Amino acid sequence: MSDTPFSADYSHIAPRLRAVRERIEAATARAGRRPGSVTLVAVSKTHPAEAVAAALAAGQTVFGENRVQEAAAKFPGLRAAHPGLELHVIGGLQTNKAEEAVRLADMIETLDRPRLADAIAAACAKAGRAPRLLIQVNTGDEPQKSGIARAEADAFIAACRDRFGPALAGLMCIPPAEGDPTPHFAWLADRAARHGLGVLSMGMSADYEVAIREGATHVRVGTAIFGAR
Ligand SMILES: *Cc1c(COP(=O)(O)O)cnc(C)c1O
Hints:
Strand content: 15-25%
CATH architecture: Alpha-Beta Barrel
Distance between the termini: 27 Å
Number of domains: 1
Largest sheet: 9 strands, parallel
Helix content: 40-55%
Number of strands: 9
Shape: globular
Order of helices and strands: HEHEHEHEHEEHEHEHEH
Structural class: alpha/beta
Bound molecules: pyridoxal-5'-phosphate
CATH class: Alpha Beta
């Protein structure tokens, strides 16, 4: 019997991570793409710092969080111990959280409106650091979802390109929960190619292999690694 009344067990994380990495490499090979060309973003939202530490111990270095407050509580300590750690903000971002997001993140994947671009630009100037940026496109034009509308995407991408230069790295999407994500991934890949953007963040636990087939460079996987939330 353990002395502690409750102690969580994180021993599932290393084997699950290994399995996801194997599936990523297999999907990359099936797509005829270069080995190692897909980055796994381990989505640790709602899971404690100890779970992130278990993933770090298993060699994972790139993490995604969707709430800035939660990331601020969990990551600074981990970063001190793991200088190679890379943190992505992947959740819809309020303008009043832009400063903290810019201070914390290596990449903000959810730039989706002009006012947020203003807030991020101001925060970068103030903080003297510039995370890489992805524009989130609401490829399904779903009213409840963040992301720039499809019809406005080209103009917004061009404007952000001018404003942020090479810090604007690519595009991100979350297709509708129902239905085949393939046309959404293909649309996003086409848009990135037209604008000469190299990063494509698409695919989650349920569909990351499809996303890799369609050209994802980053897949955001939570449940398949850390378990249910
Ligand atoms: C939670 C989340 C994920 C991971 O989802 P899983 O289905 O748990 O893999 C990916 N992207 C975003 C934006 C998320 O909020």
